[in-house]
Amino acid sequence: MTNPEDDAPKLIVTHVFPTGEEAAEAVAAADRLNLGVRLYNQIVPDEDGEGYIEEWVVELFDSAPELRIDEEENGAGEGLDET
For residue 69, what are the CA distances in angstroms to 44, 66, 72, 76? Predict the structure, then answer.
């Protein structure tokens, strides 16, 4: 019997970008290479420690993760206009 964690995509590398545009370019490149991607942004203290900056994080995986959605738990379809 195989462990589901053994089949989970493996993290290859994490890159941090100062702009969403640069992160989008990395995501497009990962798509061409058929890699899995996790993209998110975060607010971190700036180098002076006097304020904050936004940075974009792109995590690359050896394959795309499988997304499973339980429609009843997540309320799929609620608030959607089907016209």
Answer: 31, 10, 9, 8
How many whole angstroms separate alpha carbon 69 and alpha carbon 77?
A: 12
Distance CA 15, CA 46 (A): 18
* Position 80 pLDDT exceeds 50: no
Instruction: Tell me which residue of 59, 65, 67, 64 sits closest to 11, measured CA to CA.
Output: 59
- 53-72: per-residue pLDDT in tens? 999 999 999 998 777 777 66
Distance CA 13, CA 60 (A): 5
Both structure tokens of 39: 């993209």
